[in-house]
Write a structure and sequence with these properties.
By secondary structure, the protein is mostly beta strands. The protein has a single domain (about 30-240), classed as Porin, CATH 2.40.160. Helices cover about 5% and strands about 60% of the residues. It is built from one helix and 13 strands. Strands 1-2-3-4-5-6-9-10-11-12-13 form an eleven-stranded mixed β-barrel. A two-stranded antiparallel sheet has the order 7-8. This is DUF2490 domain-containing protein. Keywords: Signal. InterPro entries: DUF2490.
Length: about 260
């Protein structure tokens, strides 16, 4: 206990002078209702390889206004049945405030490691994703031609609880934190957190659907401005097996994308 008090006092002493005598900016939180629909497709082409493809649309004011359009491709390599590596490219068209006819474009390269395991009453997924993001700012509907680069690190923990063993429906609980790093990151090392609660149902051997609520809490580059998005999400997961040898099962655990 004594060492904890000393450590806390040291932290307060070191952080105190930087803010002493300065007026800290007021925190601004913008709340919005969103609707997010996507299709997340997996094409198994060999025992060790698969092709990934995602298409996403997210809208503001529930469905009234556009927010972003997102397209991603990638390749996935199976280290074993539960451990996978993936990498690929994505492009995002983000609607700027004030003029949605011109978009902020983002080119994204990503790499990820995912680990999944099935238990008697739990389907668990853990994923680490690293993204290299290249994007430009838009003001009054015009590009500023100031392309800049930001790295982002993402940690996802997701759990599915089947309503009955080997049943088609499960309760999904997931949380993913996004952290920025790089020279252009000044005020927002923390980028966002996504908390998801939903129901996932197997429609047939190729398709599953995930419907639920996602709370996105995002810090913007200014540092004191945050978005709190209450999002209704409808995600479709397609799995297609093109392997010549289909003896091994093909039913991956996939929760939460983009």
């Amino acid at each position: 206990m004594r060492s904890f008090v000393i450590a806390a006092a040291l932290v307060l002493f070191l952080s105190g002078p930087s803010s002493y005598g300065q007026e800290l900016p007021e925190r601004v939180v913008n709340e919005n209702a969103q609707f997010w629909i996507s299709t997340n497709n997996l094409f198994r082409i060999a025992s060790r390889w698969a092709i990934l493809n995602d298409i996403h649309i997210r809208r503001n004011n529930f469905v009234a206004d556009p927010n972003f359009y997102f397209l991603r491709f990638g390749g996935q390599y199976y280290l074993n049945a539960n451990l996978r590596l993936a990498a690929g490219y994505a492009h995002l068209w983000l609607t700027p405030t004030g003029d949605w006819d011109n978009f902020q474009n983002e080119n994204r390269i990503y790499q990820q490691l995912s680990l999944s395991r099935r238990y008697e009453k739990l389907n668990a997924l853990f994923r680490i994703r690293i993204e290299q993001r290249f994007f430009n700012n838009v003001m009054d509907g015009q590009s500023l031609n100031d392309d800049f680069f930001v790295n982002r690190l993402r940690f996802l923990v997701s759990a599915g609880f089947p309503f009955k063993q080997d049943g088609p429906t499960e309760l999904i609980l997931a949380n993913e934190i996004h952290l920025n790093f790089g020279e252009d990151v000044v005020f927002n090392t923390f980028n966002q957190n996504r908390l998801t609660v939903g129901i996932k149902h197997k429609l047939n051997k190729n398709w599953k659907v995930d419907c639920g609520y996602m709370m996105v809490y995002q810090q913007l580059a200014a540092g004191n401005v945050y978005n709190l998005n209450h999002t209704l999400r409808l995600f479709f997961y397609g799995s297609f097996d093109f392997r010549k040898n289909k003896n091994s099962p093909f039913d991956e655990i996939r929760h939460s994308e983009e």
